[in-house]
Amino acid sequence: MLSDPTKQERRNATGVRRTTSVGLLAVVAVSLTLSSAASAGTGHFRYSHGEPLNDLRVTPGVTFHVTVATICRSGYSTSVRDVPESEKNEVYAMYGITHHTAGQYEIDHLISLELGGSNAMGNLWPELNNHPHGYLNSKDILENRLHALVCTGKVSLRSAQTLIASNWVTTYHRFLGAWPKANAVPPTTTTTIAPVATTIAPVATTTAPVATTTAPVATTTSGAGATTTTQVGDVQITSLISSVAPGGHESLTAHSSKPNDSCTLAVTLPSGRLSTESGLGTTTANASGDATWKWSIGSTTGAGTAQASVSCSAGSAAGTFTIT
Q1: Which end of the chain has less neighbouring CB within 10 Å, N or C?
Q2: CB-count exposure of residue 201 (10 Å: 0-12, 13-18, 19+)
Q3: For position 88, what pLDDT does the model report?
Q4: How far apart are CA 162 and CA 139, in angstroms?
């Protein structure tokens, strides 16, 4: 079992809250072998598709010993979340971030709690918020999708943990398709420390095939705008106003094959920014599997094509509409 000596000493001195419903959870490293020297070094962001990733030398991803049944239980993530401010400050220091603007980062569980991730330092990193004032980051949407796939037996827990720890951006493209662009603030670092030489031990994993069906692309033209809908799995957009003016109101209805499914809607505006309008986000489909969102288009929103992306446990779908 791997552990962070510095972190363990602090825990022995001060004690850490444990949730009785979960019990004593042993922590193990899952993505690579992390040396104590690497743990103490300053991390450097990697990049994939232009997006910052964790430094595998210092944030390889660490998990609790938990089962699929445990992580799929309602309320599990809340019951084990335990990251004090002092630990968050240590993570910023570990990545050489000495100052940052409000909302620029969040200290994120690389392997999310809902996928069995732990609160250990080796599982925490400063995630760059790609819409700091919104309800979800792009990685949050991926985490929800992987959790749904694991809990329905379509992807193994081990595979989901390995995929999100090694390169969550590539994993997002694999499972959710087009990347939702947004106004992200570039990483801020004020120190440069030579990389620490470490050996990364590859982990042999088997990725369970994801059972999906791809429906033909349906195109509906109405007025000055066109709505193009694509789907993966058993979710489809059944209604989306094709053209709307700034200050107007938009609505979208999606159908999931799963009754009472949990579905999330994210809208990328023509500027590339994710909309933060009230009415978007996560909702629960009705007994027939239908979920509906209604939201406003800001009066100063620029003209162009916007993208609406729906993610449910049964699948995902995306469509476009025109802001005139």
Answers
A1: N
A2: exposed
A3: 92
A4: 15
CA–CA gap between residue 293 and residue 269 (Å, rounded): 16
The predicted model scores a pTM of: 0.48
pLDDT tens-digit readout, 269-320:
787 666 778 888 788 889 989 999 898 998 889 898 887 877 777 777 778 8
DSSP state of 189: -
Strands 46-48 and 51-53, by their bridges, are antiparallel
Cβ atoms of 47 and 107 closer than 8 Å: no
Cα separation of the two ends of the chain: 58
**Cβ count near 9 (within 10 Å):** 10
List the one residue out of 139, 17, 161 whose CA is nearest residue 79.
17
Give the model confidence (pLDDT) of 132-182 as tens digits: 445 577 888 899 999 999 999 999 999 999 999 999 888 988 898 876 654
- Residue 29: phi and psi, rounded to 5, are -80, 140
pLDDT the model gives residue 156: 94
Given a contact cutoff of 8 angstroms between Cβ atoms, the answer to whether 59 and 110 are in contact is yes
Using DSSP's 3-state secondary structure scheme, residue 250 falls into strand
| DSSP conformational letter for 319 | E
Which of 279, 96, 260, 275 is closest to 192 using CA atoms? 96
**Domains, the chain, ranges and CATH?**
5-176 (no CATH), 218-323 (2.60.40.1930)
**HEC profile for 145-193?**
HHHHHHHCCCCCHHHHHHHHHHHHHHHHHHHHCCCCCCCCCCCCCCCCC
